[in-house]
């Protein structure tokens, strides 16, 4: 029995082992199948990774190529701007000077045509540059106090001659509930209205153009506005309306040579409206006129502090090209030291020289490149240097860096250096300031802009506005004691506190303490105004307003002017008191 039982068990075990072997074989076959499938998937994954790496490489190459193309485009436009602005500076500058001389009516009309034609060319260059900056995302809004009633009136005034020539009448309707002071970009809003009203005039003959500003709603300290410009002109077809706001796009009628233009005005306006988080559109039937509309919200000014507009002067100059009538030159007191002009282009050098002479500055030296500018600086003292950006041998940036290094090494006083350039991009402006230049003039340079710049950096040209005569006279007549007693007492108190406060302000500016700059500049401005010290008050007001908008770049450049302006005002008051007591 035991023997049979063992055989049975052995057989049973053999069968179990055989089944297990089969399972093992199946398992191995399945494992092999899985491994094969995994290997296949892994190969596919590797292939996909390789393709992805290739695609990423292609994308990076494409991106790098796009960046290179964008940079090349930017450099090309910058060069184009510079090359166009150089001869334009000569044309516009000389026609401006010529219009200030004695001319016959026929001569004046001819010169005016030259001026208007050159201004038109300048507008076209600026439009192309604006479009480039907008497409690159470099265009920023510059919010400040804004009065839409004043802007609308200003636009109509600038375009009235053009409207009269076309036999058109300009009308304006403004909602009574429109706030007097909103916060927005005055320059860009003006540019939009100039484009819309200018287009309406262009395509209307013997008709009417209406500008309407309506308040749609008011909440959260903001007013939502609808601005409409309606004309009775030729109208726009549905087909043309669909492509109106594209760059370089024009209507079928607009392409006719008699209307002119580049087709950029509306596309640029649309970009600006988008930057303001607004909308723009058109309503028109062909032959029945057109209405261009904008809906946009602006913050209502709610604080008591004035935000002085920081609109870039060159931007406003491009919008307000007004023909100058014959005027007397502005007589300036003789300068202690000459002004140096460093400019390689003989035409531009002559234009700036004549412009300076026209505003009464005749003590002038000129050089043709950066090396000569540095040599001239070493040879004798100057009040200010007007430095061209692009010059042979040594450009304006490198020449400025050398002069600043000499100042540091030899402990020389800081000399104002003002850039003269045909490059108007923000990048080039920053390059000039980072190189050590104090201010920036873009070509072409209007006479008024040059005069303002000279007065800003040459305190001796501010003699007429150092003090507010009305305030000084009032202080002289106050008080029961001897005449001038109150003014003398106030001056003593002012001199006791002001120098240390100016030192504090310079310290806060140097260390980027924006809130402290605002408080100290405001305090100094108030005390200066109460004593009739006008020029220093204006400087402090500009510093305060820039600081309120978080910008300390310009105030830092102005800090060198504070102590001379303070000392000059104190001397003026002391001289006045001395003359009274004699």
Automatic annotation (TrEMBL):
Could you tell me which residue ranges the Response regulatory domain spans?
338-458
Residues modified as 4-aspartylphosphate: 388
Write down the chemical reaction(s) this protein catalyses.
ATP + protein L-histidine = ADP + protein N-phospho-L-histidine
Protein topology in the membrane: Multi-pass membrane protein
Looking at the record, the residues that make up the Histidine kinase domain are 79-300
Q: What is its main location?
A: membrane
The kind of enzyme this is, by top-level EC class, is transferase
Matching entries from SUPFAM superfamilies are given as: ATPase domain of HSP90 chaperone/DNA topoisomerase II/histidine kinase (SSF55874), CheY-like (SSF52172), Histidine-containing phosphotransfer domain, HPT domain (SSF47226), Homodimeric domain of signal transducing histidine kinase (SSF47384)
Q: Which InterPro entries match?
A: CheY-like_superfamily, HATPase_C_sf, HATPase_dom, His_kinase_dom, HisK_dim/P_dom, HisK_dim/P_sf, HPT_dom_sf, Sig_transdc_His_kin-like_C
Q: Which UniProt keywords apply?
A: ATP-binding, Cell membrane, Coiled coil, Kinase, Membrane, Nucleotide-binding, Phosphoprotein, Transferase, Transmembrane, Transmembrane helix, Two-component regulatory system
**SMART domains named among the record's database cross-references:** HATPase_c (SM00387), HisKA (SM00388), REC (SM00448)
Residue ranges of coiled coil: 10-65
Q: Keyword Metal-binding, does the record have it? A: no
Q: Which residues carry this modification: Phosphohistidine?
A: 522
Record flagged with keyword Lipid metabolism: no
Pfam short name (any one): HisKA
Ranges for domain HPt come to: 483-580
Where does this polypeptide localize?
A: Cell membrane
Q: What is its EC number?
A: 2.7.13.3
Q: Which PANTHER family match?
A: HYBRID SIGNAL TRANSDUCTION HISTIDINE KINASE J (PTHR45339)
Name used for this protein in its record: histidine kinase
Per the UniProt record, the source organism is Paenibacillus gallinarum
């Amino acid at each position: 029995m035991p023997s049979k039982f063992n055989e049975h068990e052995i057989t049973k075990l053999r069968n179990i082992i055989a089944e297990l072997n089969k399972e093992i074989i199946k398992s191995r076959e399945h494992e092999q199948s899985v491994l094969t499938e995994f290997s296949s998937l892994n190969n596919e994954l590797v292939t996909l990774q390789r393709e992805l790496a290739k695609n990423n490489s292609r994308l990076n190459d494409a991106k790098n190529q796009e960046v290179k193309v964008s940079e090349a485009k930017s450099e090309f436009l910058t060069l184009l701007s510079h090359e166009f602005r150089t001869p334009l500076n000569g044309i516009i500058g000389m026609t401006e000077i010529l219009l200030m001389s004695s001319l016959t009516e026929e001569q004046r009309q001819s010169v005016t045509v030259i001026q208007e034609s050159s201004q038109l060319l300048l507008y076209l260059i600026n439009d192309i540059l604006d479009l480039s900056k907008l497409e690159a995302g470099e265009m920023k809004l510059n919010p400040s106090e804004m009065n839409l009633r004043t802007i609308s009136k200003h636009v109509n005034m600038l375009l009235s001659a053009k409207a009269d020539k076309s036999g058109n009448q300009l009308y304006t309707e403004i909602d009574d509930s429109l706030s007097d002071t909103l916060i927005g970009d005055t320059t860009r809003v003006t540019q939009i209205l100039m484009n819309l009203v200018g287009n309406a005039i262009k395509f209307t003959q013997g008709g009417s153009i209406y500008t309407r500003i309506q308040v749609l709603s008011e909440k959260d300290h903001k007013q939502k506005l609808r601005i409409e410009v309606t004309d009775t002109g030729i109208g726009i077809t549905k087909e043309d309306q669909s492509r109106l706001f594209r760059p370089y796009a024009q209507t079928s009628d607009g392409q006719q040579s008699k209307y002119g233009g580049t087709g950029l005005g509306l596309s640029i306006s649309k970009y600006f409206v988008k930057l303001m988080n607004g909308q723009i559109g058109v309503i028109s039937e062909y032959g029945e006129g057109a209405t261009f509309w904008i809906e946009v919200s602006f913050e209502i000014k709610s604080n008591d502090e004035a935000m002085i507009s920081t609109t870039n002067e060159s931007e406003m100059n491009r919008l307000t090209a007004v023909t100058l009538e014959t005027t007397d030159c502005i007589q300036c007191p003789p300068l202690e030291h000459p002004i140096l002009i460093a400019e390689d282009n003989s035409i531009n050098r002559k234009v700036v020289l004549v412009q300076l002479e026209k505003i009464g500055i005749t003590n002038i030296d000129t050089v043709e490149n950066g090396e000569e500018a540095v040599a001239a600086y070493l040879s004798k003292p100057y009040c200010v240097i007007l430095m061209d950006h692009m010059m042979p041998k040594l450009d304006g940036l490198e020449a400025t860096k050398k002069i600043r290094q000499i100042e540091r090494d030899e402990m020389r006083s800081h000399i104002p250096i003002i850039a003269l350039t045909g490059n108007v991009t923000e990048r080039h402006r920053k390059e000039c300031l980072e190189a050590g230049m104090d201010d920036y003039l873009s070509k072409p340079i209007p006479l008024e802009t040059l005069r303002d710049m000279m007065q800003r950096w040459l305190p001796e040209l501010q003699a007429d506005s150092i003090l507010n005569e009305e305030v000084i006279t009032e202080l002289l007549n106050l008080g029961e004691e001897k005449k001038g007693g109150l003014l003398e007492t106030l001056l003593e108190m002012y001199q006791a506190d002001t120098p240390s406060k100016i030192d504090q302000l310079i310290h806060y500016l140097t260390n980027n303490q924006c809130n402290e700059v605002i408080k100290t500049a405001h305090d100094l401005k108030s005390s200066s105004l109460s004593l009739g010290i006008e020029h220093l008050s204006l400087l402090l007001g500009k510093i305060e307003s820039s600081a309120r908008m978080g910008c300390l770049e310009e105030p830092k450049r102005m800090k060198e002017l504070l102590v001379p302006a303070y000392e000059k005002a104190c001397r003026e008051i002391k001289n006045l008191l001395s003359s009274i007591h004699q």
